[in-house]
Specification:
Helix content: 40-55%
Strand content: 5-15%
CATH class of one domain: Alpha Beta
Order of helices and strands: HHEHEHEHEHHHHEHEHHHEHEH
Bound molecules: iron/sulfur cluster
Structural class: alpha/beta
Largest sheet: 4 strands, parallel
CATH architecture of one domain: 3-Layer(aba) Sandwich
């Protein structure tokens, strides 16, 4: 098999998760497939139970019937989830397990529960205030409930040994992905942002051992690309779901090269491993992963005194040498909207050019996006000492 074939398979899983699930079921008869929410759900627990945990993606289809179940001012991701529930497009999951991260997700989970009568839905409230003294106990309790739900689903115990194996599998996959992101931030422009998005989006769908093997094959033999002279851009935002590929393509068409990001389908997913030490308690490690991941890449849906997204962003820009930041904010994403003024102030204070783009589920006019991007690239170029 060539590395092109490996990349093709990763891309196929990223772009058609239902087809991947069907193939996986053929290869693993009798084993359940569980839809889980992005960002905070510990997939290791579901994998250790013998099921395939799939992070439910926005399938990017227009919202039709789902319109009746959530207000228009909910974000595109939650309205798309409601639409998937309303039209039977969640039917390939045997259960849906959700870890809370915002109020809009709560609404979407109610729709999934109300419309998917035969599919069990469990919504776990993970504490959002991570600096409180009682946070560790509450996190441990909720992780225990996720384990109990996984056991109930498969009618079998989730053993510590299986948990350790699942943690090792996801850690290895994220670590390999992280190498690609770190190489990009250091100047390697081998992978376009759309390719990188496919690498991460496929990791959110696939069995981690299979994904790791394909990823290693796709990376094999690819040397670092020469440093690129285009304007270096950091992409920020887009929690929970992937931005549309055509947006990423326009960015690079305009004379910019994406060197780093904090997108969910990007560095946000790959940034944190579960910190399991030799002989350690796997459930404790999973609880620590959740408690500490905000310090590695702050999330606006969580509150923590020693973590703030604005200073992380300025530091990330300095590390990668990015010359501009493009904020990709999904329309009506409240957590992002609340934090955005702080991000803007911090970047302004650091003298970093920036552009806010509000993305919509049905897409945005690409020509006006292109014009605004070109203006940002021009501003960044004028700041270069040799620009004439
Ligand atoms: S965090 Fe933002 S994108 Fe995610 S569900 Fe909440 S409002 Fe939607």
């Amino acid at each position: 098999m060539t590395s092109t074939t490996a990349m093709d398979r990763l891309r196929a899983a990223a772009r058609d998760h239902r087809a991947y699930v069907e193939q996986w079921r053929v290869r693993h008869p009798g084993r359940p497939v569980v839809g889980v929410t992005p960002m905070n759900f510990p997939r290791e627990i579901v994998l250790a139970a013998g099921a395939l945990p799939v992070v439910i993606p926005d399938d990017q289809r227009p919202v039709g019937e789902g319109r009746a179940y959530l207000p228009e001012f909910y974000c595109g991701f939650t309205r798309n989830l409601a639409d998937q529930a309303a039209t039977g497009r969640l039917g390939h999951y045997d259960a849906i397990l959700l870890a809370d991260h915002c109020i809009q997700l709560l609404g979407a989970s109610d729709v999934a529960r109300a419309l998917g009568a035969r599919t069990p839905v469990f919504f776990g409230m993970l504490i959002s205030s991570l600096s409180d003294s009682w946070a560790p106990a509450r996190i441990t309790e909720m992780m225990g409930q996720f384990r109990a739900e996984a056991e109930r689903l498969t009618s079998a115990p989730v053993t510590d040994g299986a948990l350790r194996a699942a943690i090792a599998a996801y850690n290895a996959d994220r670590a390999l992905l992280r190498q690609v992101f770190d190489a990009r931030a250091a100047g390697d422009a081998t992978w376009s942002p759309a390719d990188l998005q496919d690498l991460v989006a496929s990791a959110l769908i696939m069995d981690p051992v299979e994904h790791h093997a394909l990823l290693a094959e796709a990376l094999a033999g690819i040397g670092p690309a020469a440093r690129d002279d285009r304007v270096r851009v950091h992409l920020s935002g887009h929690l929970c779901h992937a931005p549309r590929r055509e947006l990423l393509e326009v960015i690079e068409d305009c004379g910019a090269v994406v060197v780093d990001d904090d997108l969910w389908t990007g560095r946000r997913y790959v940034q944190s491993n579960v910190p399991l030490e030799e002989g350690g308690d796997p459930m404790e490690a999973i609880a620590r992963w959740y408690a500490e991941r905000n310090t590695r890449l702050p999330c606006p849906t969580r509150v923590q005194h020693d973590a703030d997204w604005d200073s992380w962003l300025v530091d990330a820009v300095r590390r990668s040498g990015a010359e501009a930041v493009v904020h990709l904010m999904p329309k009506f994403c409240e957590p992002h909207m609340f934090l955005y003024p702080e991000l803007r102030k911090a970047l302004d204070a650091a003298g970093i050019p920036q552009l806010l783009v509000e993305t919509e589920h049905e897409g945005i006019p690409l020509e006006s996006f292109r014009t605004r991007l070109e203006a940002l690239v021009e501003r960044a170029l004028r700041r270069r000492p040799a620009y004439a």
